Structures are given as structure tokens and as C-alpha cells.
Amino acid sequence: MDTLASLFSFITTPVSWVIVQFHSLYGALFGPDTGWAWGLSIVSLVILIRICLIPLFVKQIKATRNMQALQPKMKAIQERYKSDKQRQSEEMMKLYKETGTNPLSSCLPILAQSPFFFALYHVLSEIAAGNPVGVLNQSLVDSARQAHIFGAPIAAKFMDSPEKVEALNASLTDVRIVTAVMIVMMSASQFYTQRQLMQKNVDLTVKTPYMQQQKMLMYIFPVIFAVMGINFPVGVLVYWLTTNVWTMGQQMYVINQNPTPGSKAQDNYLQRLLKSVASHGEVRGRRRRGVVQAIVAKGTDRNDNERKFITGLAKAGFAAQADGTVAKSDVAEAESEGGAAHRRQQPKRQSKAQRQSAAQQAAAKDAEETDSVSKTSLTKDEPQDAKPKQGAKPASGSARQPKPGQRKGQQRPKHPSSKK
Q1: Is beta strand 318-320 parallel, antiparallel or unpaired with respect to 326-328?
Q2: Which of 43, 49, 206, 343 is deepest in the core (most CB within 10 A)?
């Protein structure tokens, strides 16, 4: 580790200068030799570095999402050119170029803060040895050696010998308890950050080897940090714990405000947006209008979460507009895929008793119709009575016999002006 720290010695002077500036501020509040002054100086160094790395973090988020979206295409290229590794690499590079994706972008924040990490390690190692480093003169080094965080010197390590710990005016028990607690917290924060990313901010509809790889890293990284942590000084543990907490909070903000399409976080975000629209009757905020505008522009390419959101808007009496706003709508049923086809209503399934009752009623109706037809046929087969006598009047109420070619039934009377 000392060799790695020496490789980044070119940045030792800037790092030590930043620490001294923060120490002058906190030293005036808590005292120059206290652990609060030196510990908060390290925490402030982390915050300053992470603020400067926010643009790289944004690129990391975009690169990670692009890599997730490209996984099916990458898998197809691997299957197609599995016997030709050179052609496979060429097609991969072509795919990256066409989509504007850089695989290394997902590692940019870690790579960018590595020089600061090793420079801080080198500074703390020199403080433990009592040697001036960077802009830290001998008096500042002696002050830092006297600084304790919960009884542990900022330059002490978990694996230090009792003699070395005693030279720093501390007990080995205090050092190991404090460092063990900080190592556990550092590993737990790393695990939670990765777990939060996998469970909430990953498109679960795409099953790729990339997801399995991320799942493995979720368990491997905390173990790596736990093993390496026993060789880190307390000040470096403060640095790494602070950057892990910062990453966790930053990721929580991204998951809640800018989730990955198709993820569980996107579903939660759109449901919150739907409640807001239903309560206020409008889309509040330019960023939210941008989200609605992007969903409308997708048309039939919407995922399940976005279709559910459009359906919820329609049921609430709103229709999403192309500019990201919503308008009142009388349509209670959402348009599927942004189109005009409504889903067909399926008949309710009947129980067994209902089906048997319906069958019995149908059989009884058929029997009644059969009896009616039989009676009608028997009536027609009976012999006709003799013709009435000549001159006899027909029975009252009997129907007049129609002439050939004339309609049956009661005839309409002729108009007086018509010819007889």
C-alpha cells in the first residue's frame, strides 16, 4: 500500500493543503488538537471531492443504463461471432460507437477519486511516523498525532502493534473496537448501496449476464473492503465511510427522482406523480413535465410502468399531452399503447350450479316447444267439418275467407271513391 501511495505523491501537497485549510476552520471551533477538528477536516475533504465528481457521477448513471439496454444486443453478437473473437470485438466497438456508450464511464467516479484516496493514505502514514508531509509542518503533524476519534488516533490501524499504539498515546483495545465498528459500517454501507441499486433501479424485464455480474459484486465488494479495512488508518476509514454514505445518499436521490425505465423505482415514481396530478389537476415542475413528455413521445414503445401511468391518468379523467402537461378528459378507460383499441370485456365465469340451472331451464324450454309443435300438428290432422248450408250466415266473429291471391287476415276497407 505504501508503494501505491508513493505513486500518487504528486497530489499529496494539494490534499494536505485542503486538510490544513479545513483544520484552521474547525480548530477555531473545537480546538486545534481535537479529533473533531481533524476528523471533520477529512470529512470535508471527501465532500469537496465528491461535489467536484458530480458530473462524472451523472456520466456513470447514463453509462450504466446504456450498458443495461445494450446487453441483449451484446449477447446476440457474442452468440453470432463466438468462433471469431476478433470480429466479435470489432462488432462490440461498433455497437459502442453507434450508441455513444463508453464502458469505462461506469468506473469514472472510483478512478477519479483513487489518487485522493492514496494521497490521504500517504499523508496519514507520514503523520503516524511523525514526519512532515506536503504542507503539514512538524507542529501540525504533532497536533494530528494527538487527535483521537472516540479514543483511537487518526493514524492508528487495526493491525498495529501495542507498542505503536502506545506511541500514539492510545490503547490497543480502543483502536481495535473503533476500527472494527468503522469497518463493519463501511462494508454495510457498500452492501446496502449495491443492493438498493439491484432491487429498485434495474430493469427487471431484461435478464442478462450483466445483472448476474452486478449481483455477485454486491457480495464481493463488501468482503474486499472488510479485508482491506484492517490495514487502513482510522483517518482513511473516516474518508471511505464518508464517501460510501455520500454515494448511498446520492444514489437514493437518483433512484427517487430519476429512476431507470422499467424498474420498480420508476413504478413508485410514476405512482407518486399520478397522485400529484390527481390532487392538483396539473403536472407541477419542469422536470416532471419532461418525464410525461418523454412517456407520450414513446407511443407504443412504453413499458408496463408507463402504460399503467397513462391508464391511471385516464381513469382519473386526464389525458397526457405532447408538451408534458395534462388536460381534462371524459374518457374513463385508458387508450392502450397510445392508440384507439379498447380491451374487450370478457364474460364472467359462471359457477357449476349456475351452469346446471341454465342447462335445466334450456331443457324445459325445449320440452315446452316440442309439446306446442305436437299439439299444432294434431290440430291440423283432424277432419274438417261439412261445409255450411247455402244461405247460412257465417258465425259471428269468424274471419272472412280470403279470395285467391288475397292476403290472409282482416282486410282494410276500400275507399268509397274506389271502383266496385
Answers
A1: antiparallel
A2: 49
**Which 3 state secondary structure label does DSSP give 157?**
strand
Secondary structure (3-state) at 182:
helix
Angle at 123 between CA 119 and CA 127, to 5 degrees: 170
Instruction: Pull the grid cell for residue 317.
Output: 379523467
Given CA atoms 397, 398, 403, 409 in this order, what sign does their dihedral have? positive
Show the cell assigned to 46.
471527501
Three cell numbers at 247?
454515494
Amino acid present at 269? Y
User: Which ranges of 230-317 does DSSP label H, i.e. alpha helix?
Assistant: 234-257, 264-280, 286-298, 304-315
Cell triple for residue 91? 462488432
> Which amino acid is located at 125 in the chain?
S
Give the three-state DSSP class for 399. Answer: coil
pLDDT by 10s per residue, the chain, length 420: 555 555 666 788 888 999 999 999 999 999 888 989 999 999 999 999 889 888 887 777 777 777 766 767 777 887 888 888 888 888 888 887 777 776 666 666 777 778 888 888 888 888 877 888 888 889 998 888 888 998 899 888 898 888 888 888 889 999 999 999 999 999 999 888 888 877 776 665 555 555 666 677 778 888 888 888 898 889 889 988 998 999 888 888 888 888 877 788 888 899 999 999 999 888 988 888 988 998 998 888 888 888 999 999 999 889 999 898 999 876 544 444 444 444 444 555 666 677 777 777 777 776 676 666 555 554 544 444 444 445 444 444 444 555 555 555 555 555 555 444
d(CA 221, CA 187): 8
Question: Do the beta carbons of residue 298 and residue 324 sit within 8 Å?
Answer: no
Three cell numbers, residue 125:
502514514
Separation between Cα atoms, residue 241 and residue 188, nearest integer Å: 10
Residue 115 CA to residue 235 CA, distance in Å, equals 16
CB 255 within 8 A of CB 272: no
Identify which of 214, 217, 239, 219 has the alpha carbon closest to the alpha carbon of residue 229. 239
**The three three-digit cell numbers of residue 372, written as one number:** 306446442
